[in-house]
Amino acid sequence: MLSAFGKAFRTPDLRRKIFFTMAIMALFRFGSVVPTPGVSYVNVQECLKTANTGGLFGLINLFSGGALLHLSVFALGIMPYITSSIIIQLLTVVIPRFEALKKEGQSGTTKLTQYTRYLTIGLAVLQSTGLIAVARIQGRIFPSCSLPIIPDTSWERIVTMIFVMTAGTAVIMWLGELITDRGVGNGMSILIFTSVAAAFPGQLWSIKLQKGLFAFIVVLLIGVLVVAAVVFVEQAQRRIPVQYAKRQVGRQQYGGTSTYIPIKVNQSGVIPVIFASSLLYIPSLIVNFSGSQAGWAVWISRNFVRGDHPIYVAAYALLIIFFTYFYVAITFNPDEVADNMKQYGGFIPGIRAGKPTADYLQYVLSRITAPGSIYLAFVAVIPILALIVFQASQNFPFGGTAILIVVGVGLDTAKQIESQLQQRSYEGFLK
Questions:
Q1: In whole angstroms, what is the distance from residue 180 CA to residue 416 CA?
Q2: How far, in Å, CA of 127 to CA of 150, rounded?
Q3: Whole-number pLDDT of residue 24
Q4: Hey, what CATH topology would domain 1-198 get?
Q5: Dihedral of CA 381/385/391/392: which sign?
Q6: Sequence-distant (≥ 6) Cβ neighbours of residue 159 within 8 angstroms
Q7: What is the DSSP letter of 399?
Q8: How many CA atoms lie within 13 A of 184 on its CB side?
Q9: What is the tens place of the pLDDT at every residue in 230-269?
Q10: Quick check: helix, strand or coil at residue 243?
Q11: Where are the domains of the chain?
């Protein structure tokens, strides 16, 4: 692998792409620490010392690389784009126009990408407005801190901050597209990777300072095992063999080839974890904003605010399993796959074309989604288990959304570099 890494840097065009990608990543991190005009940097730093970064704010803060709680220019991070992409993807199932665009190929994909950009800007305006509205009230973002985050709350200052944060989101989209066009890997995924990976060194070192060297080594060993397990599962797939019948067209003979349909164990990626985390934070958000002292509010505060409560853990795991099945069901259509196979003369050996093929694909998909959903739920609750067993912080570095993103994006980028090396007859990274 090290020799392949050296060959990648010795290849001029590939080296340029890698350095370009690294430069964009550095620029993205720089924007994550530049404070938005109107934010008191000193007060934010003081409040961060006592901040609890759990819940939905913690999730968004993770995707922004800590920029959210710093209220920087890139405070919203990549979250508006992720949300808009998920919404557009879900709408392709509901709206016939979007479904037709998806089937049009490159032109349709370009149109959907344009819709995603427009929706991202709209969501950025809404999210920046909501964030500033919460931040201007003392004790909302940082309950244990009474210092004013935004000293000047005049409407001119507020409008300026909304404009700057929205512009920051637009710049992030542009940087991601630059990486996709001129760099290595998928741009948006690389930026998410950068945000998440940026928090790893600080979280590891805080464990060393708080718990000592022994706990630090134990966490590192657990981290290596978790990463190895995640890599193994992320690479695992069920290959369904497909045979294409031979057909004669004039003097030319077509077909007769054998291929397969790859069905990954974790077909849904990290999306179910994001959905479940966001949904679970809604009850506590309602309680915080309503200020109610009723029985239902007390029960929610007791069971859904603390991340280590058994009811919270059980609900979190069950929601992840549910959303895994839900997301796989809307992204993989067995009937559509079976129709495409039948159209091009393909069939699964031993299975009749058409409806029996769709039923078989649905059967295999449901069987393989079960361990995939359990695996996602287990990885997601690792930080909560660490909180209970080690009394560690909720920002346990080797678990949950963070490790899934880091490993997934890392593998995808390594595969892309490997394919470019193999085009030049070099041995790849993943050999």
A1: 11
A2: 17
A3: 92
A4: Preprotein translocase SecY subunit (1.10.3370)
A5: negative
A6: none
A7: S
A8: 27
A9: 888 888 888 888 887 776 666 666 656 778 888 888 888 7
A10: strand
A11: 1-198
